From TrEMBL:
Membrane topology designation: Multi-pass membrane protein
Classification via Pfam families: Sugar_tr (PF00083)
Taxonomy, superkingdom: Eukaryota
Family classification: Belongs to the major facilitator superfamily. Sugar transporter (TC 2.A.1.1) family.
Lineage: Eukaryota, Viridiplantae, Chlorophyta, core chlorophytes, Trebouxiophyceae
PROSITE patterns listed in its UniProt record: MFS, SUGAR_TRANSPORT_1, SUGAR_TRANSPORT_2
UniProt-listed PANTHER family: D-XYLOSE-PROTON SYMPORTER-LIKE 2 (PTHR48023:SF4)
Residue ranges that the Swiss-Prot or TrEMBL entry lists as coiled coil: none
Localization (cell): Membrane
Official protein name in the record: G1455 protein
Region of interest (Disordered), residue spans: 1-34
Organism this protein belongs to: Coccomyxa viridis
Alphabetical keyword list: Membrane, Transmembrane, Transmembrane helix, Transport
Membrane-spanning residues: 40-58, 90-110, 119-136, 148-165, 177-199, 205-226, 361-383, 389-415, 427-446, 458-477
Length: 501
């Protein structure tokens, strides 16, 4: 079984390398503590790339309110406010089309640009499109602005996990990449807040969309100041001295010369192996040593989108209103309730990812999602009255909480750390395309499925997919807690070697 092979290889990597928060003495006489972390510099290495996620979340939260404002004869402030269903769908989905295009483009140009310049490009796209949307004189320009914003989303969601994974200290890498999901949820809440504040203002949709220019400028300035990824610098041929300089900057005031040299030596070894390897084309990613990490990353991105989140949240307002929660301010009340709860549960994942590990959070969280989906299906198919209502409310909250401690943050974390250096940019781009592509397909077919089969049968179908997700995670997803990126790569190399013996 793949899982057994993974555990054996994992043990070999640990026995010959770093474990937990220690590193092996060069003399082989035992482990010694790692140097302390510069908390301020590490925070900056996280917060600026994570603003790309916040701007993604903000668009999700703001668009529902912006559409209400735009379609109202009273608040639109335009002569073209009377949008039909197709035009409304175009406004909402155009950013998703852009995100698909951006993540697809990242497959081709991501490694050439590098993580930092890719985030700079995302910041320019975010900021420029915010101005275009806020000043749009007609529907066509608004849709164009939405598509450009989506391009920014595609580049940002591809580059941010890789930059954080490659630039941050290994022992907090998991916490920081998971914490990026907190910024996404914070962005959603800020979007809801913007909707609440401006939905009754004439031209309020312009303010909602235009406001995202402010964090975009901060993202641009922050990424302009931050160092490049030392791994990307070596891989791109920038030279050891430049990589060492940027690594010292990344480690901040607590940078220890000996520790920097040890870390740089490990990176150099990984880069030499990557450069000695023929970089595969698209088909080559699905062969040899790249197949399993690619399967792990793309399957998590796929299951993240096809295990029911759009469907569950689609019915959230109705479930809460039946229970008397959020009545009177239906959409806003339910959105805020769920948004705050999502934020709290994402915080739980961040606080436990380095102690419990990635794999246990995924297995426990996705299993809980299956239980909640079965409860939702049962409440719709077999229960009535208040028992149905409150069973649905409890199951809904369980589902949202379970998603936020598993698929929400952990999928992006693993995508940020699991791919070999030689193909990290291409593989991460393919995983991002899988995410946005499956999101689009689910959004496309979900209304028809719900109308044809009903809520109960839809939940039951997603529960079956959830069981397949749990089985897949158990079979192929390794534990990467406490390992450097080079150790994670060696984990798959050992496994590949075992299969050729």
């Amino acid at each position: 079984m793949l899982h057994a092979t993974s555990k054996q290889a994992e043990a070999e990597v640990q026995s010959g390398g770093r474990r937990g928060n220690t590193e092996q003495d060069s003399s082989g006489n035992g482990a010694r503590p790692e140097p302390p972390i510069d908390r301020l510099m590490t925070f900056l290495l996280f917060i600026f790339p994570a603003l790309g996620g916040l701007l993604f979340g903000y668009d999700i939260g703001a668009t529902s309110g912006a559409l209400v404002s735009l379609k109202s004869a009273v608040t639109s402030g335009t002569t073209w406010y009377d949008l039909d269903s197709f035009q409304s769908g175009l406004v909402v989905s155009s950013s998703l089309f852009g995100a698909l295009a951006g993540s697809s483009a990242a497959f081709v140009v991501g490694d050439k640009l590098g993580r930092r310049r890719e985030l700079l490009l995302a910041a320019v796209l975010y900021g420029g499109s915010s101005v275009v949307m806020g000043a749009a004189p007609g529907l066509e320009i608004l849709v164009l602005g939405r598509a450009l914003y989506g391009l920014g989303i595609g580049f940002a969601m591809h580059a941010a996990p890789a930059y954080i994974a490659e630039a941050a200290p290994a022992k907090v890498r998991g916490t920081l990449i998971s914490l990026k999901e907190v910024l996404v949820v914070c962005g959603i809440l800020l979007g809801y807040l913007g909707s609440y504040l401006f939905v009754d203002t004439v031209g309020g949709w312009r303010l909602m969309y235009g406001a995202s220019a402010v964090p975009a400028v901060i993202l641009l300035g922050g990424m302009f100041w931050l160092p490049d990824s030392p791994r990307w610098l070596l891989l791109s041929g920038a030279g050891k001295s430049r990589a060492e300089k940027d690594l010292v900057r990344a480690r901040g005031s607590t940078a220890d010369a000996a520790a920097v040299q040890r870390e740089l030596a490990g990176i150099e070894k990984s880069v030499r192996e990557a450069q000695a390897t023929e970089i595969p084309g698209f088909v080559g990613l699905f062969k040899g040593r790249y197949l399993r990490p690619l399967t792990v990353g793309t399957s998590l991105m796929l299951f993240q989108q096809i295990t029911g989140q759009p469907s569950v949240l689609y019915y959230a307002a109705d479930i809460f209103n039946k229970a008397g929660i959020g009545a009177g301010k239906d959409a806003t009340g339910v959105s805020v309730i769920l948004g705050v709860f999502k934020l709290v549960m994402t915080g739980v994942a961040v606080l436990t990812v380095e102690s419990l590990g990635r794999r246990p959070l995924l297995l426990i969280g996705v299993s809980s999602m299956v239980v909640s989906l079965l409860a939702l299906a049962g409440s719709q198919l077999a229960l009535t009255g208040q028992l149905e209502t409150w069973t649905s409310v409890i199951a809904l909250l369980l589902y949202v909480g379970a998603y936020q401690v598993s698929f929400g943050p952990i999928s992006w974390l693993i995508v940020g750390e699991i791919f070999p250096l030689a193909v990290r940019g291409q593989a991460a781009a393919l995983a991002t395309v899988t995410n946005f592509g499956s999101n689009f397909l689910v959004s496309l077919v979900l209304p028809t499925v719900q109308e044809t089969f009903g809520a109960g049968a839809t939940y039951l179908g997603f529960a079956v997919i959830g069981v397949a997700a749990v089985a897949t995670i158990y079979a192929i997803v390794p534990e990467t807690k406490g390992k450097s990126l080079e150790e994670i790569e060696a984990l798959f190399d050992l496994e590949s070697d075992e299969k050729t013996v």
